[in-house]
Design a protein that fits this description.
The structure is a single chain. The protein is α/β, with parallel strands linked by helices and 190 residues long. Helix content is 35%, strand content 22%. The chain is built from 6 helices and 8 strands. The chain has an 8-stranded mixed beta sheet with strand order 1-2-3-4-5-6-7-8. Helix 2 links the parallel strand 3 and strand 4. It is globular. The chain starts with 6 loop residues before the first strand and ends with a strand. The C terminus is likely disordered.
């Protein structure tokens, strides 16, 4: 049994309430948290697992105000962690202020409930300087952690080198089932 926290996720666009509840039942004894679509947050609160959801899923291309409303609604429904997908198009276009505004808006929307905001870092789609830029924005705006969808911890350790200890890192890996994923938290490995 792993001593690292385990998060299971169901984020397929066609996933049903029944599947979200069943995932929670299946992993109630072995997982620490579940990540479901915002639609199902309130429906899985009684699972005993911490409930996370996604904001800006999957592209983060909504405007900041819409993302803030989405974040506020998710926390009002009971989500304790928001996994935020930032605007990849804006980042690639050099519109860092636009990206920063969106991240800050989501962090501010989560603040009243003390929900954590974790920023998804699309590793494969970003150049090294873009990765660093997005990670820096996450730190500056008060995000709790970064999620890196990579299997190898060496990639994460390379990014960890320039991040302060206050921000966590999560290595996201695909599980055998298409509907589930797990994440290992690497809070400080310098």
């Amino acid at each position: 049994m792993s001593t690292k926290p385990l998060t299971v996720a169901l984020l397929r666009p066609d996933s049903t309430r029944r599947e979200a509840v069943a995932l929670c039942e299946k992993f109630a004894q072995t997982a620490d948290s579940v990540c479901v679509l915002p639609t199902w947050v309130a429906d899985v609160l009684d699972s005993g697992l911490d409930v996370a959801t996604v904001i800006g899923w999957p592209h983060g291309a909504a405007n900041s105000q819409a993302l803030g409303i989405e974040a506020a609604m998710a926390t009002a429904d009971g989500a304790t962690e928001l996994i935020f997908f930032s605007n990849l198009s804006a980042l690639k276009s050099g519109a860092e202020l636009l990206v920063a505004d969106a991240v800050q808006t989501v962090v501010d929307a989560a603040a009243p409930t003390e929900s954590e905001v974790t920023l998804w870092l699309p590793w494969e789609q970003l150049k090294p300087l873009e990765r660093q830029s997005l990670a820096r924005l996450a730190v500056e705006c008060g995000a709790s952690a970064l999620v890196l969808p990579v299997d190898d911890e060496e990639s994460a350790k390379a990014l960890r080198e320039f991040l302060p200890d206050e921000i966590g890192m999560i290595i996201a890996c695909e599980a055998s089932a298409a509907s589930a994923a797990y994440a290992h938290r690497l809070w400080s490995e310098k």
